[in-house]
Amino acid sequence: MIPVRGFEARRVVVLGLGRSGLAAARALAAGGAEVLAWDDGAPARERGEAEGLSLHDLTRREAFEGVAAMIVSPGIPHLYPAPNPHVARAMDEGVPVDNDVGLFFRSLGDPEWERYDLAPRVVAITGSNGKSTTAALVHHCLVAAGRESQLAGNIGRGVLDIDEPGDGGVVVLELSSYQIDLARALTPDVAVFTNLSPDHLDRHGGYGGYFAAKRRLFAEGGPDRAVIGIDEPEGRYVANQLAEGPGDDRVIRVSLTRPAGGPGWSVSVKKGFLAETRKARQVASVDLRGIRGLPGAHNHQNAASAWGALRALGLGPREIEAGLASFEGLPHRSQVVGERGGVVFVNDSKATNAASAARALEAFSRIRWIVGGQMKDGGLGDIGPGRGNVVKAYVIGREAEAVALMLGGLDHEIAGDMATAVARAAAEAGPGETVLLAPGGASFDHYDNFERRGAHFVAEVKKALGASSET
């Protein structure tokens, strides 16, 4: 655990008693704070009491008397679409509002670090798509190279729940816009911006607010090195804001659409080949096409972002290449879960928006596409060149008929539920085809989260493969 500093013997309210809230409460207590816990849900309050936390009813008139700060869990809105009433009241009372990420950066560095020969470093990764895979890939390559690394944030453990890093240790954080937006301290050594596409727009008051939340990691943090995907105008803007000139190698530009080169530091991927250039000279290259854990252009972008971060940490090209080759991918993200008679079954349940679904469709040829869920603003939009890879779509979810209309002229059927979709796709698929779950929408119409949706897909695939083996 990372004990929180700066609140010794002071009263701090923790609002929201999920994973991050409970970790924040423990870390605050370890640092000597008087922790007052609250959650509007009775089951969460019971969990807090079971951990020995003192519940503090925020609906009482005197609830904020003597309170030094309020720590808010990421899922609780503080501004859009409307602030949580407790957060609004804290702001009205002048009580500083922060979150666990802000506490982490506030508390990680201290004078005791002088004992280290090499101070620990933090890599913080954000973006709309690919940040989980990029973070996991950075962590995997560090461990494969024999370096100390911990994975935390929006993936792995809570940011305050990790161990104190050792000499030269690295903390790899995946950070969502929710986590970045409210943090009062953001000081990573290396910050990564993968890409941007519309998501969480209601939470941020529109696309500009969503981008502004992501940008805070770079504008507020002032990282020593920034790895920036520049295939969207927002990424180019961030890179331009950080660089002092074309040759400023504090910014590593990542692209799938622009050729490597120029006076600065860049990592590009073209037709599956990654190239790193510095000062107009290629210094490393690797063929990504045969790495099963990184299929498709979207995963090649993740690999390029991870490559930039790892190079900024001092790893050599051959160390990184070996780590990439042994990476097996993450569950629910282009995860191969079965194979039969030349048909591959792929779970990409994390494709919760149109952009990520479009990238998944580009990664495979001859696809039987399981699509549907709770659509976000814009629906499926333009799914791009991957449309040509779809043999047939199988539409699931409560909005199945509406989603079917978004498919235009694609051959499709309304399956309704996961079991029917998998069974139909498996029965109709032939050698060389891929049965792909890439829903393009959130899971909340039928599932608690995308993990449960992906797990259901995997279970139905196992049923389909088992039934086939018995016939």
Based on the model shown, name its key terms.
34% helix; Protein-Tyrosine Phosphatase, Chain A; globular; 471 residues; 21% strand; UDP-N-acetylmuramoyl-L-alanine:D-glutamate ligase; 9-stranded mixed beta sheet; Rossmann fold; alpha/beta; 6-stranded mixed beta sheet
Write the layout of secondary structure elements.
Blueprint: E1 11-15, H1 19-30, E2 34-38, H2 42-50, E3 54-55, E4 67-72, H3 85-92, E5 97-98, H4 100-108, E6 121-126, H5 131-144, E7 149-153, E8 170-174, H6 177-182, E9 190-193, H7 201-204, H8 207-219, E10 225-229, H9 233-242, E11 251-255, E12 265-270, E13 273-278, E14 281-287, H10 296-312, H11 317-325, E15 335-340, E16 343-347, H12 354-363, E17 367-371, E18 390-396, H13 400-406, E19 412-416, H14 418-428, E20 434-437, H15 450-470
Helix pairs in contact: 5-10, 5-11, 14-15
Structure description:
This protein starts with 10 loop residues before the first strand and ends with a helix. It has helices at 19-30, 42-50, 85-92, 100-108, 131-144, 177-182, 201-204, 207-219, 233-242, 296-312, 317-325, 354-363, 400-406, 418-428, 450-470; strands at 11-15, 34-38, 54-55, 67-72, 97-98, 121-126, 149-153, 170-174, 190-193, 225-229, 251-255, 265-270, 273-278, 281-287, 335-340, 343-347, 367-371, 390-396, 412-416, 434-437. The radius of gyration is 23 Å and the shape is globular. It has 471 residues and is α/β, with parallel strands linked by helices. The relative contact order is 0.08. Helix 5 crosses helix 10 (296-312), helix 5 (131-144) crosses helix 11 (317-325) and helix 14 (418-428) packs across helix 15. The model has no long low-confidence stretch (mean pLDDT 92).
